[in-house]
């Protein structure tokens, strides 16, 4: 029995001759020697062919392994689609927004300037319009009137004394020529007359003083304007130390004390126009900056721009308002806020190059308006700028740019 599962029979002597050995398969069937050799050869050939095919397949896999990896990577990596805009250059009217409180532009506190007394009548109230010299409150002057009357009588007494002294002097002058009165007597009469005349002047001056004091008892408006506050009532005793009794706004003019940053304050000058909108009013009032604060608050780093406003009943001191102030016109690229990124190195945008890869570009921003932010340096306006999704990109990333409909 051989190793192929076939049984070879030994030679036999039949008729005195030796026969060829017989080959049997595994089932015991007898095979010829040539058939067995043919089968063995075919088996070797098949094995060789299979081996060659496997080697060829392995070689192809090794040679095309890199291309397959690239194809797999291309299939698994998705290039993001981004919206881009070419900003160009726009002429932008600069606007600075500030907030603050309304106040009287020229507040006039009014109090008692005389010796004071009991308030008999208050003729105006908060919100009334008054004219210069108009009586705001009347103070009791009964005692002062009597003092003035007494002084008026003193004037008449002094005037009578002066007339008598003049008559004595006139008679003395007639007698001096006759020698009845000496020159010294004339001098005495003259001095007496002059003293009497002087006392008349003193009495009249005292009366004028009393009358002036009486006139100052009434509280009057120093100028035309709007009464903002009334702090006095009938029966109240007032004097020079009673404080402010009325608060007036001269000519009714108001102002907004707008708080602005150092940078914004530096862009303004006196005379620029502004629109002021009080909270809850729904109306805007035209005004102009009439004064800029010469100092900056050390804590808030802000300064005050005072915006003058004409009188209007809708403008109430103490109210809160917003001002939009003109700050000139600039020509520069304008981008939406979403296109500008910020990090520790400053502001930047992503520019899409010709190879559809994004590149970081540092920029400097300027005016901020309702439609966007101006870029004062870093761009010329012809670049393709990524409008959105900049926070998800890295420098050098490949993208598929798509023009933004907002830019059309």
UniProtKB/TrEMBL annotation:
InterPro entries: Beta-barrel_RND_2, BSH_CzcB-like, RND_pump_MFP, YknX-like_C. Residues 335-400 form the YknX-like C-terminal permuted SH3-like domain. Residues 117-242 form the CzcB-like barrel-sandwich hybrid domain. Residues 1-29 are annotated as: Disordered. One of its GO terms (cellular component) is efflux pump complex. Residues 260-326 form the CusB-like beta-barrel domain. It comes from Novosphingobium resinovorum. This is Efflux transporter periplasmic adaptor subunit. One of its GO terms (molecular function) is efflux transmembrane transporter activity. Pfam families: Beta-barrel_RND_2 (PF25954), BSH_CzcB (PF25973), YknX_C (PF25989).
């Amino acid at each position: 029995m051989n190793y192929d599962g076939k049984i070879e029979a030994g030679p036999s002597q039949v008729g005195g001759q030796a026969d060829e050995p017989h080959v049997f398969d595994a089932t015991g069937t007898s095979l010829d020697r040539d058939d067995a050799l043919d089968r063995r050869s075919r088996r070797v050939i098949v094995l060789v062919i299979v081996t060659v095919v496997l080697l060829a397949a392995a070689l192809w896999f090794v040679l095309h392994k890199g291309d397959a990896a690239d194809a797999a990577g291309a299939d698994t990596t998705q290039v993001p689609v981004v919206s881009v805009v070419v900003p160009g250059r726009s002429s932008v009217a600069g606007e600075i927004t500030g907030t603050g409180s309304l106040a009287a532009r020229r507040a006039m506190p009014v109090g008692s300037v005389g010796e004071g007394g009991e308030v008999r009548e208050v003729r105006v109230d908060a919100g009334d319009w008054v004219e210069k010299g108009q009586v705001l409150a009347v103070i009791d002057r009964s005692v002062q009137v009597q003092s003035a009357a007494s002084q008026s009588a003193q004037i008449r007494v002094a005037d009578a004394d002066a007339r008598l002294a003049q008559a004595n002097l006139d008679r003395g002058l007639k007698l001096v020529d006759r020698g009845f009165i000496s020159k010294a007597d004339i001098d005495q009469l003259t001095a007496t007359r002059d003293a009497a005349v002087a006392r008349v002047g003193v009495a009249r001056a005292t009366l004028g003083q009393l009358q002036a004091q009486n006139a100052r008892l009434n509280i009057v408006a120093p100028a035309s304007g709007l009464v903002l506050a009334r702090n006095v009532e009938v029966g109240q005793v007032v004097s020079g130390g009673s404080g402010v009794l009325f608060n007036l706004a001269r000519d009714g003019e108001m102002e907004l004390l707008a708080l602005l940053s150092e940078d914004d304050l530096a862009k303004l000058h006196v005379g620029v126009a502004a629109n002021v909108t009080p909270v809850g009013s729904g109306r805007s009032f035209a005004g102009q900056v009439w004064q800029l604060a010469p100092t900056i608050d050390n804590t808030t780093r802000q300064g005050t721009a005072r915006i003058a406003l004409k009188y209007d009943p809708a403008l109430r001191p103490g109210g809160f308002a917003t001002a939009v102030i003109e700050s000139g016109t600039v020509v520069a690229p304008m981008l939406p806020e979403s296109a500008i990124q910020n990090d520790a190195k400053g502001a930047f945008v992503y520019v899409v190059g010709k190879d559809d890869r994004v590149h970081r570009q540092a920029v400097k921003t300027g005016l901020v308006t309702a439609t966007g932010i101006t870029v004062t340096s870093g761009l010329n306006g012809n670049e393709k700028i990524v409008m959105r999704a900049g926070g998800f990109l890295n420098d050098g990333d490949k993208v598929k740019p798509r023009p933004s409909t907002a830019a059309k």
